[in-house]
Design brief:
This protein has about 150 residues and is α+β, with helices and mostly antiparallel strands. It is built from four helices and four strands; from the N terminus they run αββααββα. It has a four-stranded antiparallel sheet with strand order 1-2-3-4.
């Protein structure tokens, strides 16, 4: 498969998940007062606002916005570097992190908090963007810490 087609596929998957997250958050913005079981009572769709960072840890708004700007800028440079090195596995993980971070960033700009809507009993409430960020970071660390460098 050609490099440009692979990059297009990578970006398309990330964009698709980004759009699903934005669609759900759009529905939540209009109707915040609903919840339902997804899998018995331990996995639910339950809307909550999160003004902090991971697990609701409080951080000043201006610090969060500065961190978002630095992270998104760093991800742009990392993505360009991955393309130039033909490291499409790293590019995939960077795209997932970037799309997830950008979705949450849009919430912070618009509302001052992030909409979370997936409740896992005895754990936390999160969203698809958080899943993308977590999966992207885990994949990137695995690829770069363990030097898995064969190209896609």
């Amino acid at each position: 498969m050609k490099k440009s087609l692979k990059i297009t596929a990578i970006v398309s998957v990330g964009l698709f998940l980004f759009l699903i997250d934005r669609f759900i958050k759009g529905i939540i913005t209009v109707n915040q007062n609903f919840s339902f079981d997804l899998f018995f009572d331990w996995f639910r769709f339950e809307v909550m606002s999160n003004s902090g960072v991971a697990f609701g840890i409080p951080v000043a708004y201006w610090i969060l916005m500065a961190l978002y700007a630095i992270i998104l800028l760093g991800l742009c440079f990392a993505a360009i570097s991955a393309v130039l090195k033909n490291d499409l596995k790293s590019l995939s993980s960077i795209m997932f992190i970037a799309f997830g971070a950008f979705s949450n960033f849009l919430d912070r700009i618009r509302f001052g908090f992030v909409w979370d809507y997936l409740y896992l009993k005895n754990f936390s409430v999160f969203n698809i963007a958080d899943i993308m960020i977590t999966a992207g970071v885990a994949a990137y660390l695995a690829l770069n810490l363990f030097k898995v460098k064969d190209k896609i």
